[in-house]
Amino acid sequence: MTTTTLEPAARPRLPHLVWALAATHFVGRAGGVVRSFLVLYLTQAQHLSPATAGSVVAAIGLGDIGSQLLGGWLGDRIGRRRTMLAGFVGGAAALTALGSADSLPGIWVAAVAAGLTLELFRPAGSAAVADLPPQQRVRAFGVLYWAANLGFSVATVMAGVLAKYGYGLLFWINVLASLAAALIVWRRVPETRPAEPVRTRQALLPVVLRDRLMLAMLGLHVGYFTVFLQTFTTLPLLMTAAGLGPGTYGAVLALNGIAVVALQPWAVRLLAGRNGAAVSAVSMLLVGLGAALGAVSHSAAGFAASVLVWTLGQIGIAVRFGDTFAALAPAELRGGYLGLASTSWSIGAVLGPLAGTALLEAAGATVLGTACAIGGIALFAAQRALAPALRRRH
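Given the sequence above, the corresponding structure tokens read:
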């Protein structure tokens, strides 16, 4: 692996756009208290089975898939700013419906709507960062990820305390946070979409279907996010089975956000100039091993250790994720490419909860842990195999 050292003159100050987007990420994640506790709300307040609760979480992920494709397409057509506004305002409406639904079909419909709207801002915001000069992208993506995880750590601790007063309060906090994020976008985020006429833009699908490297990277990241995101559904179930309550779960999960906040700025400096494929391969391995450790843990300390291990892998992926896919994209299709990249997360958000809860319920924690470890090793090998092609493309 090679490293590069950037002189101060080569690292210009990040524009105000980045800090405005960071503020929306922080507010949205700090107030995003529903999703991490949704399984507990569904099983305890709505009295659904773990598998049914997993299917509702998967329904949000199904909406996420559409939101990433739609968000990327809209970002390239109507602009990054308008797309983010539509997502935050629509997300507030969908969360209100989800918290009010009292039938399973209603819960499923509201869950899909929440997934479809709440994540519209991600590909649009990523495209706005990708519109920056290449030398600023890694730092800018790092700032956004850092802000989001600072908000996430606030959300998990706050939600663990507030859940004692009823899950309905969590929904209203999340709704207000979405509206506050929309206000920041409206007042502080300028439009960055390139000014070429729409008629000169290539159609996304034909370009992507010819791009074998892009397709391979998408498949690889679907596998990674499936392993990674199943942890957020199975972890509360594993901790509940071990006799640990919502407060302990919130504190353990908050370690994820705290570790990202503490380590990610350092990780950007350490990893930004290194071989991206090698960083991603090791990171995927760590996520698989960390998830496996969580599946076989029985104490708060064991669960905390597993969270810290997969968090190290999560940080490594996050440092290079946006920049890697931005570098693969034609300039006029950045929104679409980054939307597809985010779709790999959304597909994982569907497959992860379904596979994780089904495997846990049918075969037990040990088999779940074994599957996660094997998945991490396979992802490591596949990412290493793609390294030469990535070097040639970049």
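The two ends are 15 Å apart (CA to CA). Try to locate this feature in the token string yourself.
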